[in-house]
């Protein structure tokens, strides 16, 4: 099938209340969804609000809803997501307040990282001082491998926007914050395990996850928050059984 000469792009305009505006954008080889949005903003409507920084899949700031599904847009080729008529529909990420147009407000997402105690707490330096020596953590140890498996999160919120439990329960910490907590529970240099496990237990935490795996299926970095959450459940189970909580 010959490629269409142009794409019809419906773009959300406004905040929570708004409507779609339509644009015709020239189709190009190897065009990404972010290229399309940038074309619209530079050539057709300079007032369009959206967010990006690195363009190479590192910063996590360009995620949007593309034809109904959360994706990073700088690494998503149009040809892979466009429908048969060459149409694209772009909305801001779901499960977050809308600032304007394609820019969602990520404050609630990062607040939840903080509530899940997603900050490293050095074990040997209780006042936050920098330890004098580097810790040696064997790369092949089980805990190191568990931590490594989740550490490349770029904070794009694709998983958060894809999670039904987040949609149903405003308080739920969500896959990325829980994944972060799991990397720290496995960090042998960290001294905040007990408080962190307290923070991720309960209705807002890991026990509310239904293991549907949308987070894992859609994470553009191929991380597995669903397994991380299962790890937190196991850690809480054993800590409770062994009287450590
Ligand atoms: S596995 Fe859990 S965190 Fe991931 S999308 Fe499903 S309910 Fe949400
Ligand atoms: S876990 Fe994956 S989808 Fe979720 S914020 Fe991190 S990189 Fe993005
Ligand atoms: S612009 Fe940085 S990840 Fe897409």
TrEMBL record:
One of its GO biological process terms is: respiratory electron transport chain
Top enzyme category: oxidoreductase
The 2Fe-2S ferredoxin-type domain sits at 5-94
> A Pfam family in this protein?
Fer2_3
Q: Which GO terms describe its molecular function?
A: 2 iron, 2 sulfur cluster binding; 4 iron, 4 sulfur cluster binding; electron transfer activity; metal ion binding; succinate dehydrogenase (quinone) activity
Q: Does the keyword Protein transport apply?
A: no
User: Which prosthetic group or cofactor does it need?
Assistant: [4Fe-4S] cluster; [3Fe-4S] cluster; [2Fe-2S] cluster
- InterPro entries of this UniProt entry? 2Fe-2S_ferredoxin-like_sf, 2Fe-2S_ferredoxin-type, 2Fe2S_fd_BS, Beta-grasp_dom_sf, Helical_ferredxn, SDH/FRD_Iron-Sulfur, Succ_DH/fum_Rdtase_Fe-S, Succ_DH/fum_Rdtase_N
Which regions form coiled coils? none
Q: Any idea which UniProt keywords this protein has?
A: 4Fe-4S, Iron, Iron-sulfur, Metal-binding, Oxidoreductase
Top-rank taxon: Bacteria
Which pathway is recorded for this entry? Carbohydrate metabolism; tricarboxylic acid cycle; fumarate from succinate (bacterial route): step 1/1
**EC annotation from Swiss-Prot or TrEMBL:** 1.3.5.1
Which PANTHER family does the record associate with it?
Answer: SUCCINATE DEHYDROGENASE [UBIQUINONE] IRON-SULFUR SUBUNIT, MITOCHONDRIAL (PTHR11921:SF29), SUCCINATE DEHYDROGENASE IRON-SULFUR PROTEIN (PTHR11921)
Q: Family, per the entry?
A: Belongs to the succinate dehydrogenase/fumarate reductase iron-sulfur protein family.
Relate the assembly described in the record: Part of an enzyme complex containing four subunits: a flavoprotein, an iron-sulfur, cytochrome b-556, and a hydrophobic anchor protein.
For this protein, the record's NCBIfam families field holds: dhsB
Q: What is this protein called?
A: Succinate dehydrogenase iron-sulfur subunit
Q: Which gene encodes it?
A: frdB
